[in-house]
Amino acid sequence: MYRPGPDTLWRRASPLTRLAVLAVVAAMLPLWPAPVLLGALCLALAGAAGLGFGRALGLRLLVLMSPVGLALGLVHGFLIERGPPGICGPFACYPEGLRYALLVFSRLALLLSVSLIFVMTTRPSDLARALDGAGVRPSVSYLLTAPLSLVESVGQEARQIRDSLQMRGLSARSTLRERFRMLAGMVNPLVRGLITEAPIRAEALEMRGFRASPKRGLIDPVEETAREIWLRRGLLALALLQLGLLLLWR
Q: Domain containing 173: what range?
């Protein structure tokens, strides 16, 4: 999912600093109202445009969040009684429920957008090097980076299976029935390949001394300035402060 782009301050920052920004955003979600979260979402989309993939991020958010927003609006605005009812055209609705649906939608959309920005600007190898340089155990580092590294290989294998099925007569641009047939034909070899590849990956890790020591030495560690380290500490303190305010208000 990594997308190359212009050399910006965000891309030059350490992956750990980007994770600290993600922590600040995650701490914002239960504390701030929907207008603030939507404003932060607009800033995230503008930042993605400056990073070179604003259109791609916008399309992914539209595809992923449109059904979620529709479901939230229908359930909380029309089906679940929340507050006094109102009139929404020819239907009776619950304005308080619609406001709650907007709040949940803004939380999910903001978290998803910032997470996608992190994934689309961070190579799994860079994240692994940053975690190892910070003294994180190799098992924990692998647990955090393995899903990101598997996405590219799984996507490439899925494209190969799709191309082979298209050569045999199935097309993803034909009728809906043919598309489901093609999807069913892709699932079986894809899952089988993942199961077959898991022992090979485990053996490769053991041969490289994956659990030999609690801390690994690095040939090319991620370089960080003292200013960036203090910035990351400030971001983490801001995230903890927001969580503290949330506990006090409750």
A: 136-207
Give the C-alpha separation, 232 to 237, whole Å.
Answer: 9
C-alpha to C-alpha distance for 154 and 156, rounded to whole angstroms: 5
Residues 74 and 177 grouped into a single domain: no
pLDDT digits (tens, 9 = 90+) for 39-97: 999 999 999 999 888 899 999 999 999 999 999 999 988 888 887 888 777 777 888 98
Q: Tens digits of per-residue pLDDT, 115-133?
A: 999 988 988 888 888 887 7
How many domains in the chain?
A: 2
Do 123 and 14 belong to one domain?
yes
Q: Which residues, other chains included, contact 104 with Cβ-Cβ below 8 Å and sequence gap of 6+?
A: 72, 76
Residues 123 and 141 in one domain: no
Of 194, 106, 181, 107, the C-alpha closest to 155 is 194
Q: Per the domain annotation, does 121 fall within a domain?
A: yes
Handedness of CA 69, 147, 127, 7 (dihedral sign): negative
pTM of the complete model beyond 0.90: no
Same domain, 120 and 240: yes
Number of H helices, E strands in the chain: 9, 2
For residues 106 and 147, membership in a common domain is answered with: no
